[in-house]
Structure formats: structure tokens, C-alpha cells
Design brief:
Layout lengths: L1 E5 L8 E5 L9 E11 L1 H8 L10 E2 L3 E9 L15 E5 L13 E5 L3 E3 L6 H4 L3 H14 L6 E5 L4 H12 L3 E5 L5 H7 L3 E2 L7 E6 L5 H4 L2 E9 L13 E4 L6 H12 L7 E6 L3 H9 L6 E5 L1
Parallel strand pairs: 9-10, 9-12, 10-11, 12-13, 13-14, 15-16
Antiparallel strand pairs: 1-2, 1-4, 3-5, 3-7, 3-16, 5-6, 6-8
Helix pairs in contact: 3-4
């Protein structure tokens, strides 16, 4: 099968498509024939060597997948996984240092990381859900924001930020978005009450999807809460503000809840473009250019 990997770190030119063996699922795992897989900033980080690894061997790229169950580890039936060959699914394949990711023709996934694909949604759009929606939901969990409290989302027009806006608004939380004025109409359509002023502060909580760090923390009121989206990269607590960063976990049950919100129209799925697997380096170059609204998706 074909898979997208990096064996040396660098820019988009470091991305390669290689031939490798189709992986076999073990007990408690399933194999998915990939229909679509989103490209995320974490993939660029792996490509650039931010997370290390490698040592001359290739690293697989890709965390999100939408596709069809192709094989089940175990007895050849459901294997005790709850999934059967032919099921349409979405999943998160966690890990910055792994030999194969979802940017491939097949991927093996722990059964507990899998959810049924959203009904009535094509695979390209479904592939944008797992990593970004789970990150947004789990970051909101860290903040413990309740209706009646104020929330600022930085990078609100991005994939994680956009889901965070919609999830918070769905919970009845008043959301203020920090983004460019040009994105105002989009963000209001996602549920943001308004755009933040240049120096506006005093928010009960901030979800820092733009990874601003200290400037975002400064907008939190004394005793409030801050959540970042890069593990270990959040600012130290000040003024009684709780600070943390989400380390997304592959949670099939939570992913199923988010799929349900997609089916109800609560979550908007945004695709900025599609690329064939052989065009992965071009997709990385577009992502590196910035300003992408929605996810770029690879289609084997």
C-alpha cells in the first residue's frame, strides 16, 4: 500500500509517498480502508522534527481518518471489537512518533478510538471531525465553563477554534471570538456573539486555539481559567488563573457524541481543499502558506 511519511525533517519537500505492507490488526483493533484523512498542523510539526523521533526510519503522518472497516483483529467476526467489516467509521489515531499514520491506504486503529461515521456526510468532510472536534471538546472540559460565564476563543476561525465556538454556544455559553475582522461573518454564523476588541479582557475563561500564550492569558480575569492546545506549552498560573493545556485523547464514545452533533447540524464541517495522496507535499505547502479556513484533506 501507499503511505505518506517523512524520513528527514524539513519543509513540505520532506514529505514522501512510499510503498509498504498493509498492516494487520491485532486483538482489540480494526483495520480501516482509508477514504479520506485530514491534514493538521501537528502533521507539519512532525515533518519539521518538533516532536523528535525518526533516527533514520520514517515517521507516518496523519491523525484523522474516515473510511470503511476492512478487517477485524481476533476471530474474524467482530473480534469482540463491536465493529464489523463494511462499517463506515471515523477515528483518531493518536501519536506524533509512529511508523504509519492515517495518510495511507489502510490504517490499524484501536477499536475504542472508533465511532460510526456521521450519516449523510461524505468521507472528506467526516475526516475533519476526530482530532479537531475532540480537541475542542476536551479543552472546554478543562475550562469548566458554564452558561452565564464568558468565554474567549482565540484562533476562532480555525478548525479547533471553530468547533470550540460551536460547542460552547450549543451549551449556552456566550462566546467572544478573537480573529480577523474579515472572519466576523463566519464566526457569527458559528455562534460567536461578537469579535473581541484589541485590548479587551476580563473573560472568565480563554480557550487559546491560536497558541498566543501570555497575551491570551492576560485577557482572563483574576481567578479565571486558561486552556491551551499544545501539551506542556501553556503559561504558568498567575493572578489565581488556572492554566492547562489539552492533550487530546482517542475516545470513541466522546467521538460518537460529536458525530451526533454533526448529524443534528450543531457542528459545521469545513473543507478547504482535497488532494490525492501523491499530492501530499503540495497540501503541506498550502498549509504552510497560512490563511486556510477549514481542513485540507488527503484522498487515497
Amino acid at each position: 500500500m501507499r503511505a505518506v511519511v517523512v524520513s528527514t525533517f524539513g519543509g513540505p519537500e520532506a514529505v514522501r509517498v512510499v510503498e509498504t505492507r498493509v498492516p494487520e490488526p491485532g486483538a482489540g483493533q480494526i483495520r480501516i480502508r482509508v477514504a479520506a484523512a485530514a491534514l493538521n498542523p501537528v502533521d507539519a510539526g512532525v515533518r519539521e522534527g518538533v516532536f523528535g523521533g525518526g533516527s533514520g526510519e520514517w515517521l507516518g503522518l496523519g491523525w484523522d481518518v474516515a473510511g470503511t472497516v476492512d478487517a477485524v483483529g481476533g476471530d474474524g467476526g467482530s473480534g469482540g471489537s463491536g465493529w464489523a467489516v463494511g462499517d463506515d467509521v471515523v477515528a483518531l489515531v493518536y501519536g506524533t512518533v509512529k511508523p504509519l499514520g492515517t495518510h495511507a491506504e489502510y490504517v490499524v486503529v484501536d477499536a475504542g478510538a472508533v465511532a460510526k461515521a456521521p450519516a449523510g456526510v461524505d468521507a472528506v468532510h467526516a475526516a475533519t471531525v476526530p482530532l479537531n472536534a475532540l480537541t475542542a471538546a476536551q479543552a472546554l472540559d478543562l475550562l469548566e465553563v458554564v452558561p452565564g460565564r464568558s468565554l474567549l476563543v482565540t484562533g476562532a476561525a480555525g478548525a479547533v477554534g471553530g468547533y470550540a465556538v460551536q460547542l460552547a454556544a450549543h451549551r449556552g455559553i456566550e462566546v467572544t471570538a478573537l480573529a480577523r475582522e474579515a472572519d466576523g461573518e463566519l464566526l457569527r454564523s458559528l455562534g460567536a456573539a461578537r469579535l473581541a476588541g484589541a485590548d479587551e479582557g476580563g473573560f472568565d475563561a480563554v480557550l487559546d486555539a491560536a497558541v498566543l500564550g501570555e497575551p491570551a492569558l492576560a485577557r482572563v480575569r483574576d481567578g479565571g481559567a486558561y486552556a491551551g492546545v499544545i501539551p506542556g506549552a501553556h503559561p504558568a498560573p498567575v493572578r489565581g488563573v488556572r492554566t492547562a493545556a489539552v492533550e487530546v485523547s482517542a475516545d470513541g464514545e466522546r467521538l460518537a457524541e460529536l458525530v451526533g452533533l454533526v448529524e443534528k447540524g450543531v457542528l459545521t464541517l469545513r473543507v478547504a481543499g482535497t488532494y490525492a495522496l501523491e499530492e501530499a507535499a503540495e497540501a503541506h505547502a498550502r498549509l504552510a502558506g497560512g490563511g486556510v479556513r477549514g481542513r485540507l484533506v488527503l484522498v487515497p
